[in-house]
């Protein structure tokens, strides 16, 4: 009887942790959108104020703390002929597993835009990317608010049901 009780409690905890994991995954998606918007705003400010180049922009961005956009900290600090910023951006972002596909696409396009046109063209592109990311944020936020509590509740209930079945 003691082993069954322990198994029931473990099943309940497993269900609860799985529900919590799924809920946190949705929260991470919301954070990716907010951090992406912060990247866009910082780049827009730097380009608008002094026409900053790509490497200066990402030197400033690397000083910021992006918990879900970790690939930014891996970008090159210095300009050299051997470093192609766009391919480095694409490679690092593609290897990032925690960023959803849609947001990754917007960030890839943003990386391709930087340094390829004049200041006005870059600012117009960044404005378009900000509006796309805002739409993604609203979708992810609504998804988080509607499903996160459900995932946590269903996880606990599933764990309790399995626990009862074990007993």
Number of helices: 5
Shape: elongated
Main sheet makeup: none
Q: Please identify the structural class as seen in this structure.
A: mainly alpha
Measure the end-to-end span: 8 Å
- Tell me the number of strands: 0
Helix content: over 70%
How big is the Rg? Answer: 21 Å
Element order, helices and strands?
Answer: HHHHH
- Identify low-pLDDT runs: none
Arithmetic mean of pLDDT: 88
Strand content: under 5%
Could you characterize the architecture of this molecule?
The protein is mainly α. Helices cover 78% and strands 0% of the residues. It is built from five helices and no strands. It has helices at 2-50, 54-63, 85-94, 101-113, 119-166. Helix 3 packs antiparallel against helix 4. The longest helix has 49 residues, at 2-50.
Which secondary structure elements does this structure contain, and how are they paired or packed?
Elements: H1 2-50, H2 54-63, H3 85-94, H4 101-113, H5 119-166
Task: Summarize the structure in short.
The protein is mainly α.
Q: What structural keywords apply?
A:
167 residues; mainly alpha; 5 helices
